[in-house]
Amino acid sequence: MDKNRIEGAAKELKGTIKQAAGKLTGNKKLEAEGRGEKLAGEVQGSVGKGVDAVKGALK
């Protein structure tokens, strides 16, 4: 498993928590930060999946 997948999943989780905390407290800035972080984690995870697919194809 590529490190990007692991780091992406961690960012995604952190973003989800921030987004939920922002919604709960009514803090729009925190909610937006959470959405951004979640999206960044999804992208990073996708990159990791791509790297894993290439590595698997080369074996």
Overview of this structure, please?
Helix 1 (3-25) packs antiparallel against helix 2. By secondary structure, the chain is mainly alpha-helical. Helix content is 92%, strand content 0%.
Going by helix content, strand content and strand pairing, the class is mainly alpha
Main β-sheet description: none
What integer is the average pLDDT?
Answer: 95
Are there runs of 5+ residues with pLDDT below 50, and where?
A: none
User: What is the helical fraction, as a range of percent?
Assistant: over 70%
> Which series of helices and strands comes N to C?
HH
Number of strands: 0
For this entry, give a set of tags:
single chain, 59 residues, mainly alpha, 2 helices, 92% helix, rod-shaped
Summarize the structure.
By secondary structure, the chain is mostly helical. It is built from two helices and no strands. The mean pLDDT is 95.
Indicate the topology.
Layout: H1 3-25, H2 28-58
Helix pairs in contact: 1-2
